[in-house]
Batch of 3 targets.
Target 1
Amino acid sequence: MRIAYCVRALIAVLGLAAVVRPVASNEYFNDTFYEVHRVRRSSRRKHIPEEGSAIQNGFMEDQEMDKRFHHRNSRKSHLLDPEDSGNRTVDCCPTVLEMIEPLGGSNQEGLLVELYRDENYIQRFYEYSCQHSVVDKPCKFINKKLHAQSRCVQRHSFSYALVKNTPSHRNKNFPTFPAHGNGGATYTLDYIKVRSGCSCVVVNKNKKRKNTRKQHAKT
């Protein structure tokens, strides 16, 4: 009896030890998992400010680059346009816009024609004339080697005008129009010569030498 009682007690102790050991293992596992999880979370929390600071630093660098780019562009535009005059351009042979009301003009054949006008109607034309200071003078902004050979010359074109019809220069391609109060005179369309701009011309050296030789030969 005493042996049987001891055997039962030993079995009970072994069973209790088997139960206590898994519980302790589970508690150790839970403690270890909690510590690892806490370390991971703390490491993430520490890493987030670093990412934020990196983003902030990148943003500050982008702002600094934008400032430099803006400064470079403003400096470039200032160098291109020192007078802050918009998109104004300067010609090598400057012109002047003029409005004229001529009594007559020269047509394509070189004949003088009389323009129509009365008390109520006057023909007006707009011309681009060379500035007086640049006519037959060397052009601006030209190569130094060609500067002495260049000069500004007046250019012309032809514009429509209503002129008096005469047999000497009658243009069959245009019809005639009667005018009231002008003694039965008729008028027709024709072209007259107007100033249309100022251009730069470079004279050939050989041609210039030939002209000087001819002048010396005449003298």
Note: The first helix runs from residue 2 to 80.
Target 2
Amino acid sequence: MQPDIPYRQTHQQAPDEWKLEQGLEPARLGIRNQSSIQINTEPHRLNPSDHEELKGPDIPEDPDLDVQDERPGWKGYVEWEDYPEKKAKAHQRFSRFTFPPPPEFQLESLPATNPVLEGKRWKLWHKAIGGVLDQVPQISWETVLKEKHPEMLHLLEFPYNGEAPKSLLIKDYIMPNELHFVRNHGGIPDIEASAYDIRLDGLVNDPKTLTLADLQNESLFPRVSKLVTIQCSGTRRFEQIVEYPGEGDEMINAPWAEGAIGTAKWTGVSLKKIIKYCGGLKDGAKHIELYGADTYFKGGQCMNYVVSVPWSKVKANEVMLAWEMNDKPLPKIHGFPLRAVVFGYIGARSLGIQIQEMPVSSAIMSPWNKEVVVHDGEIEVKGWAYSGGGRWPERVEISSDGGYVWYAVPIENLSPKHKFAWRTFTGKVPCDHEGWTELVVRCWDNSLNTQPMEVRHSWNWSLHVTSSCHRVKIYSVNAKREATRKRLREFDEHGQGFTPITRPTDFVPMSLEEYEKEVANVEPRDVDD
């Protein structure tokens, strides 16, 4: 007889191959080529480069590129748009170095850290340019720690991207400044109010430079206040990432959950009034360009962050230059001493296919995904609803069975209506069944727009504008049932927690006598012919 061969010699499968087969480590998967062409099927690896390797503390100075503060009282501000030669030198300096690739955060698990992602490339880009930009990442992080709530979820350390946790997001429908989300594209400049001014030129008939004191002079410009919700177009991006990953730049596509949205009372002056003070626009002018004070990097180029809004939006008095946020001076992290607020547009306009107005959307803040909910036949659901472009949530509906049966949230359980602000809600939905179920929320706005049912219906490569019905899987435990109450008591009596629900019980749930009695009441396994 042939002797037994040890198992370890007969089983040659790699120890982690099961993970690859099941898609648990997709970043390591190559291409399965079933085409007639020859291509490289291996996953991408960073290739060696002839360029000089960038090492954080060892970057040599460049005498031809002297990046300093442009103006007194403006720390961290570098003007790029008016100096094309300086931009060209910065690009040449970039070309000398090899920078690390973006971290993989979609096809691999997110690190259990806060901040979740570091933004190492962006830090090194600032260090490579040098001068005043060298310390911008550290100064910006110190500002975050000083001005934001200690429980903020830091998605990206630099440029800073952060949102409030669900437990605090809708505690008040007007959000405290320290909890309002931040989506930065660069550092946080430190500008003194007394040194600040704004330049209006281009296609205005009478170009002017106005100080902050000029803008706050009510004999020139009437002061206005407005309750406005600002939302990042990446809100709820994580739902797309989980199902169908897309473009993976950690700054462009940070893994936002439901907290990249915030409502505040903004005080300032209408941009329309300021342009009128400058003699209006010249014929043919269609857009207003807004220049930020932060340095932005794209495609190896240095620039100031610049966006535009249509003149029609400005003419409607829906663009404000604000200096107060919730009756307080703007925090540095939100643009002190002055920022633009564009009503009903995505946050990137407040400073391919352009994104302006956000579609109708809503999200569940409580319960949380995969949470065990013990209830008495009804589940309480809390969340927010919003629609961009001057539309507002008119009706919010909740389902406890994955979207088959819907229950409207009573009007009295919705926060007040505002043209450019969200509405928070609390509603109870019947849930008789037990086990895994799916809570779903959808919103109808005043134009009768509603949300796609599935995330796939609005998926896009850039992972923007996640507006599908928000779905939260929970484990339902209906304590109105006597058998359920009995089982919960057994857990308490034996000192075992009910969660995690996947853990087997440490106690025998049924005695031998109970088991025999149960079996005696069961029909035979076989049937008679």
Note: Residues 47-51, 349-353 have pLDDT under 50 and may be disordered.
Target 3
Amino acid sequence: MKDLAADIWIAKKVYDDAETAHFENQSRSGDTSVGSYDAEALSFIQRKVVDFEKAMNEVLMKLNTIDTRVSVLEKLATVAKPVVHEINVAKQPPAQQKDTKADDDDDVDLFASDSEEESEEAAKIREQRLAAYAAKKSTKPVLIAKSNIILDVKPWGDDTDMKSMEENVRKIVADGLLWGQAKLVPLAYGIKKLQISSVIEDDKVSVDWMTEEIEAIEEVQSVDIAAFNKI
């Protein structure tokens, strides 16, 4: 674009104005020398040319900036252009048709007796496996739910025979009940309570039943559950 501007005489009007001004000055004053008028005209032309070159440089700079931006946008548009894959449906192989004749031949059971014998053997094997699984399951130990209970057995007073009371508590027996260690724990005013542990099977022995049986003993005033843990 800079070469195009150089080939065109855009400053022609500037030179025409300078020439007109020169001849007008000559016609107005005959005493002025030709050399002075030429110097003034030349100076005027030089100023105009400098101003014009500045203006042209600014225009060219703007044009170059616009050209650079357009080039960048074109590159971005080329990079961002989506890639479209063409699919030729006509070139896809046709689906294979199912050979119905072969299927019809497969439906014909030419060895019916052999199939019946195989089904009987399969049923026998299945029954054997079921029987083995049932036997294995029956011999597997059943998980028994148990609980560890610590009871606080309180007497009526400080004159209660605590040893006799413990013996009477341990006399309570049942399937799924196992008594553990026992000790005397100070209660108040010199009175001690019997703290005894036990293990019960939840399905066979209930805590309410144990409490009722212990409270039925003559030396016992009350029973409290100090701890209850599942095993």
Note: The longest helix spans residues 34-79.
